[in-house]
Design a protein that fits this description.
- The chain has two domains: about 5-100, Ribosomal Protein L25, Chain P (Beta Barrel); about 105-185, Ribosomal protein L25, C-terminal domain (RNA Polymerase Alpha Subunit, Chain A, domain 2), CATH 2.170.120.20.
- Helix content is about 10%, strand content about 40%.
- The chain contains three helices and 14 strands.
- The chain has helices at about 15-25, 45-50, 120; strands at about 5-10, 25-35, 35-45, 65-70, 75-85, 90-100, 105-115, 125-130, 135-140, 145-150, 160, 170-175, 180-185, 200-205.
- The chain is elongated, with a radius of gyration of 20 Å.
Length: about 220
């Protein structure tokens, strides 16, 4: 996966007044941390962020952060750790980035794309996709934009578990193997399955050296 460049600014003024001003100017607050370096407060241009994420990988795009007002070494390769949105307007309120190396092993998610018309659907069954994304673990430069799943041979009453999905080389399942991803049910029967908790994107490190990121402040 290629990196996408994103230019941001170092946030110098932490006052609430300045926060209102940068929001009016089309920026949102954020932070960058990881790799043993100090956490940096950022100002992120929301339009540029949207353009950077307008790729097949979407929110899982590997970014090359260039920080105006900071040393070049303070930026570099990063992934989005979390995005906070207003529950009503869905506007982005805050973005956290985590520094990574392209060779780092990352826990993330990727979308599932179904292919084919199941045999069971042709016989009157209903195709139901219970999980849209799958939790995976792989190197940052090996994150697949999506996982293809062939459902052509599914009959009525049959389903596919997460563990049965073929993954690309170098990609491992990080979620629960028994989760039902897709099923063909009888027209009057609904399949139910618990969805796994969404894990934040993170870098895998030895337990004794793993750092817990402090909550970012606006």
């Amino acid at each position: 996966m290629e990196k996408v460049s994103l230019e941001v600014r170092l946030r110098q003024d932490m006052s609430k007044h300045h926060l209102k001003e940068i929001r009016k100017a089309g920026f949102v607050p954020g932070s960058l941390y990881g790799k043993g370096k100090p956490q940096l407060p950022l100002e992120i241009p929301i339009r540029a962020l949207a353009q950077a994420l307008h790729t097949e990988a979407g929110i899982h795009t590997i970014l090359d952060l260039k920080i105006d007002g900071a040393k070049k070494s303070d930026g570099g390769t990063a992934v989005i750790k979390s995005i906070q949105k207003d529950p009503l307007t869905r506007k982005v309120l805050h973005v956290d980035f985590e520094r990574v190396a392209m060779s780092d092993v990352i826990h993330t998610t990727t979308s599932i794309v179904l292919h084919g018309t199941p045999v069971g659907v042709k016989e009157g069954g209903v195709l139901e996709q219970l999980i849209d994304e799958i939790d995976i673990k792989c190197r940052a430069d090996h994150i697949p934009p999506h996982i293809d799943v062939d459902v052509t041979n599914l009959k009525i009453g049959e389903f596919i578990h997460a563990s049965e999905i073929p993954l690309p080389e170098g990609v491992e399942l990080a979620g629960r193997p028994d989760d039902i991803v897709v099923a063909v049910r009888h027209p009057h029967v609904r399949v139910t399955a618990e969805k796994p908790e969404v894990e934040e994107v993170g870098v895998e490190e030895p337990a004794e050296t793993k750092e817990t990121a402090e909550e970012s402040e606006e």
